[in-house]
Amino acid sequence: MKTDFILPDIGEGIIECEVIEWKVKEGDLIKEDQIVVDVSTDKAIVEIPSMHSGRVTKLYYGAGDIAKVHSPLYAIDINDIQTSEPVSEETKPDLKLELVKQQPIAKDPLDNSKVLTTPAVRKLARQNDLDLSKISGSGKRGRVLKEDVLRHLDKPLAPIGPTLVAVVQDRREPIVGVRKIMARHLSDSVSSIPHFTFVDEIDVTELIKLRASLKVRYGNDDFKITLMPLLMKALSLSLLAFPIINSRVDSDFSELTYLASHNIGMAVDGKTGLLVPNVKDVQQRSIVEIAQEIGRLTGAARSGIISPADLKGGTLTVSNIGAIGGISAAPIINKPEVAIVALGKIQGLPRFDSNGQLVERQIMTVSWSGDHRVIDGATIARFNNHWKAYLETPDTMMANMI
């Protein structure tokens, strides 16, 4: 029986994706749960597995094409399961192939077919006459990434005469994959959501001390406790008092839904671009459980290959720009959420204590962006003050943390 595999929902609000690399060809026998194709969304590279065993009869898209969600991706004959092992067309006896083998074949000096990479990178290599086998790949399993090729292209020429001479010229590259679809998503957020920004500073001196004590008690070489789990737990406790921050509106702005789950996302600078996985049900998790989930999601996001379920259903996003550098920002809301906060770097700054004495305190600037259709400035300020109180006196939330 021949049937079409329909591309399912693979992310919040995603309606299309780019086909990066087919793992099979038409005519191949495949097994249930075998990875068939890698596709790229605005959030990650996603591996699509087969739901059935059978023979692939048609691939509806080529590498680099844009596939639509809820449309056929490939066709499969699920009755054709003559063998339990996938068989590639390359292993089948073929008279034409045998005839070709008898003829001398000139070797292509730029044969990049055996290098682990994506079609977009192969195209970039062809445009610049590069041999990918001579470029060291920094990706998973030695995969050559676009950044590896660009670094290679940026190398200066060998010295000519007594001085070094480098070619300075314009370079063009196609906008594809994660960057292209992410650009559409962010453009939609900016054009459809009236943003406003609120900035404040938080004294995290006591929070840093608490994190240090938790690290000694619960941390080890394989398990790290950072400030992020504490920040997320405090956010969740504050959402209980201000549920409108954890809401979303429908497409025609006729209904507001207050979400029961606190699925707090975190922006991760992965190899394929900016990804925003989220920790599900923070309101039900202990601080140790949140830290464990953050570790798992961060590792997956940085590899660029992550489950679509980890990217769906976010209700509020945290962007830690301070980890890279910077004090404040005006973050763009991750639609359909209604708020996002950017964390600035923590600085040791002089402040006056309750006795009027000048002391050093650890200060972090936070920048909120809100959907002004749903949240006004006073609401975000009160919500931030509630969150700030937990962070500046973290013992007040200890009963909810461990």
Describe this structure in words.
The protein is of the alpha+beta class and 402 residues long. 26% of the residues lie in helices and 24% in strands. The chain contains nine helices and 18 strands. It has a six-stranded mixed beta sheet, with helices on one face. Strands 1-8-6-3 form a four-stranded antiparallel beta sheet, with no helix packed on it.
Key attributes of the depicted protein:
four-stranded antiparallel β-sheet, six-stranded mixed β-sheet, 402 residues, single chain
Please give a quick description of this structure.
Helices cover 26% and strands 24% of the residues.
The main sheet orders its strands as 9-18-17-16-12-15
- The total count of helices amounts to 9
Beta fraction: 15-25%
- Gyration radius (Cα, Å) is 26 Å
Main beta sheet: 6 strands, mixed
Sum up the overall morphology in one term.
globular
Percentage of residues assigned to helices: 25-40%
What integer is the average pLDDT? 82
Find the count of extended strands (DSSP E, 2+ residues). 18
Q: Name the helix and strand elements from N-terminus to C-terminus, one letter apiece.
A: EEEEEEEEHHHHEHHEEEEEEHHEEEH
The low-confidence runs, each spanning 5 or more residues with pLDDT under 50, are 83-109, 156-161
Instruction: Compute the separation of the termini in Å.
Output: 54 Å
Helix and strand content put the structural class at: alpha+beta
